[in-house]
Amino acid sequence: MSENKLSFTLAGLEITTTEQSNPVIPTWLAEALLVGQYWHQSGLLERLQQQVRVSRGRMGRYEVCDFVLLLLAYAVSGVETLKLFFEQLESIKPVLMSVWKRAKCPVAATLSRFLAAVDEPAVEQLRSLFEADLLAHPIEMKPAMGLSDRTGKRWVVFDVDGTVKATRHRALVSASTHPQLKRRSENACAPGYGGRKRGDYVRTRSTIACAHTHEWLGTFAAPGNGTPKPDLIRACDLVKRYLYTQGLTRAQGIVRLDGLYGSASYVSELQ
């Protein structure tokens, strides 16, 4: 790097510039470090290393926790794409990885190969880890939270929302001189009902949230039309366990269905 400097005086102030690079620290770094520190102190990191396994042909120097830390930082960063995230990450890689005492940071291509190797058992292991921590350390629901009817009975509302994401595929060249066509979204999306959304393939997702504490209790997704009824059964089971954790009864819970679940056929699953 060139060390050429340029100095001049303006309005009594001496200004010095240099060609040496001095990247700006991302604004989301402090929040990412706090999240990483919480995982380390609460024991989540240790349970992650012991319980979550991803089968890969060649893992190299990285472990599952390295990629989870990157995805957590990406989630709190609010950056639109992974490409922009890795550009901001370049200058603070050692700082971010040191919060979990990791020496090396995976590059974008390594993260992409890892996500392609993640199977359904690994997703369920990670989901169970999140659910156990959520039920062990929930936000305390104070008596003022919730809804009260005219008889004074207390109710807690949960939102179960099903959404559909449509994907439009661009045209690909199909010829004997080109390799076999392979789309990156072929495992995540499948043909299905898109509703008002235009697209060739869709992906269906269901989310569960507590309306009073604003906690995300879970999310389930599948290609195509998904599995809405099994997802609703799992959501109700999670809501029931959450109510018991808060010292409430199952009868005090109200499940508000929206989006995909706007049909009377799902009432039997609630019952």
Tell me what portion of residues adopts beta-strand conformation.
15-25%
Overall body shape: globular
Kindly, what is the distance between the CA atoms of the first and last residues, rounded to a whole number of angstroms? 69 Å
Helix content: 25-40%
Mean pLDDT: 85
Based on DSSP secondary structure assignment, what is the total number of beta strands?
A: 7
Radius of gyration: 24 Å
Task: Work out the helix count.
Answer: 9
Largest sheet: 5 strands, mixed
Low-pLDDT residue spans: none
- Please, how many domains? 2
Order of helices and strands: EEHHHHHHHEEEEHEH
By helix and strand content, what is the structural category?
Answer: alpha+beta
Question: What report would you give on this structure?
Answer:
The chain has 271 residues and is an alpha+beta fold. The chain folds into two domains: 29-135, no CATH class; 140-170 and 188-270, no CATH class. It is 37% helix and 20% strand. It is built from nine helices and seven strands. The strands form two sheets. Strands 3, 4, 5, 6 and 7 form a five-stranded mixed β-sheet that branches. A two-stranded antiparallel sheet has the order 1-2. Helix 1 (29-42) packs across helix 3 and helix 2 packs antiparallel against helix 7. The longest helix has 18 residues, at 228-245. It is globular, with a radius of gyration of 24 Å. It starts with a strand and ends with a helix. The relative contact order is 0.10. The model has no long low-confidence stretch (mean pLDDT 85).
